[in-house]
Design goal:
The chain is mostly helical. The protein contains two helices and no strands.
Length: 87
């Protein structure tokens, strides 16, 4: 956390406070941040899509496939929940 703080403190000094220089850097930072956040959500949803759901947690209609990036898993994850009465 100290490195980004130091870089953000030095950038205005190096640019001379010129907003024409700082605004594109801000835009790049926002773009990278949102892209990384979205990539993390894709990983999260792909993992959730592979996890078998207990019968009581399943939606009443069949959900659409997540995406080609989330191929279905053929085996349940260790420690996953199962419906009562199933083995």
């Amino acid at each position: 956390m100290l490195t980004p703080a130091a870089v953000s403190a030095v950038l205005p000094v190096l640019s001379g406070g010129d907003t024409n220089t700082l605004v594109p850097l801000f835009a790049i930072g926002v773009f990278v941040g949102f892209t990384l956040a979205q990539a993390g959500m894709v990983v999260h949803w792909c993992r959730e899509a592979r996890r078998p759901m207990a019968r009581e947690d399943r939606p009443s209609t069949a959900p659409a496939p997540c995406s080609p990036a989330c191929p279905p898993s053929s085996s349940p994850r260790p420690g996953s929940r199962t419906a009562p009465g199933s083995s």
